[in-house]
Amino acid sequence: MSFAAIDDAPVTGFHRKLTAACSGGPLLDGYLLGIVGIALTGITTELHISTTTSAVIGVAALVGMFFGGLVFGPITDRIGRKPMYTVDLLVLLLASLLSVFVTSAWQLIVLRFAIGVAIAADYPIATALLTEWLPRKRRAGLFASVIIIWYVGTALAYLVGYLITAVVGDGGWRWMLGSAAVLAGVIFLLRLGTPESPRWLVGAGRSEQAREVIERAVGVRVSAADLADVPRDGERGSLLELFRGGHLRRMAFVVVFFTCAIIPLFALLTFGPQLLGAFGLGTGNAANLGTALINLVFAIGCLPAMKLLETVGRRRTIIWSFGLMVLPLLALGVWAHAPAPFAVACFCLYALFSGGPGILEWGYPNELFPTRVRAAALGVAIALTRFGAAVGTFLVPLALTSLGTSATLSLGAGITFIGFLACLAWAEETRHLSLEDIDVRAGQPTMVAAAPGDV
């Protein structure tokens, strides 16, 4: 076991600090993707934009994530996790500040696109770095905190939007978009001094530096022999590797389940107030507060999933989660005129059941692919899934207008069911395995790779 010093290490202050630093990006990401949903009301009024332009603003960041994931995931595998770890935050900070001064829709679309590119860069950087440092038996539990913080970020966005609207009115949308710069500055300072991934260092032929980093971080001395069987520069991966053999099956699984999870999620985050308003939960600021509460339930849903992923395993957790996620969306699709309390309850149940997939959207890609292509795999997954999410989110306001809320939510239930089928066919069990052992199983059929007793 080349990295036994890391895989079997007890959880220390180093791991908690690294988890907090890596969670900063997802906190900001969730905030940036959520705040635009509240700001759209004021933007539409002040800039005199159409429904179509409003939808473009809502999805511009997702389109940016498509390009950012394709470009910066592979770059992160080539030059390392640490160099890109703070640069992306500076881009987010600058774009957020410039959003305060926009005078037309196209300027805001460009800035939201840039924000999406930077967000997509942060996903593979922070999550690959964290995954490569975490002990194998606590990987899912600690990784879950990153996802929880993402949902906290979206809830915080709606809460801030609610407060700004209550004080300033819809004209406070500039303050909403600019507020993300404050978060970016704090997170930038938190990340200073974060060490490079020793797995990446060994793969780059820098074993001596990897030994020093491991000893400083976890207090365990390792020898050159301990790190001898890890691929070096000549064996660096490429994007093509993701689409061959067992990695192709894994990539197909990640992209399908990830897409089916985030299309309804992003639609709810971006157009939550409109969806809740359709069921009579007020309009405007009251719906913003309701959306903030639902996002907190998304975070709460990760708490039982943290335990389930380490006890019953990844495979069974994600299969049952997707199956249960279908039910509340289907109920709202069937009951076209459901009362507001029932609608809120259904949205909360969907949020609660989504904890397992929410954690594994980032956890699975980082576990299923080797160090040489880990960031590239998540980058490609982000790119492809965000393209689907962008299309889905763009169509949500149009579907609400032309088809109605009931049919729109029924479509969401159908998309979620496709995710259930993908998990049933392809989900693997990775519980308590080292990252290197998971890589060895890439060529095995899914059911062989599953642990005994798993679905």
UniProtKB/TrEMBL annotation:
As for membrane topology, the entry says: Multi-pass membrane protein
Which family does the UniProt entry place this protein in? Belongs to the major facilitator superfamily. Sugar transporter (TC 2.A.1.1) family.
SUPFAM superfamilies this protein is in?
A: MFS general substrate transporter
Q: Which UniProt keywords apply?
A: Membrane, Transmembrane, Transmembrane helix
- Sequence intervals crossing the membrane: 31-49, 55-73, 85-103, 109-130, 142-167, 173-192, 251-271, 286-306, 318-336, 342-364, 376-400, 406-427
Any GO CC annotation of this UniProt entry? plasma membrane
Q: Key word Transmembrane helix present in the record?
A: yes
Species per Swiss-Prot/TrEMBL record:
Kutzneria buriramensis
Per its UniProt record, what InterPro entries does this chain match?
A: MFS_dom, MFS_sugar_transport-like, MFS_Sugar_Transporters, MFS_trans_sf
What span is annotated as the signal peptide, if there is one? none
Location in the cell reads: Cell membrane
The record places domain Major facilitator superfamily (MFS) profile at 18-431
Q: What is this protein called?
A: Putative MFS transporter
Molecular function terms in GO for this entry?
carbohydrate:proton symporter activity
The record's annotation in PROSITE patterns points to: MFS
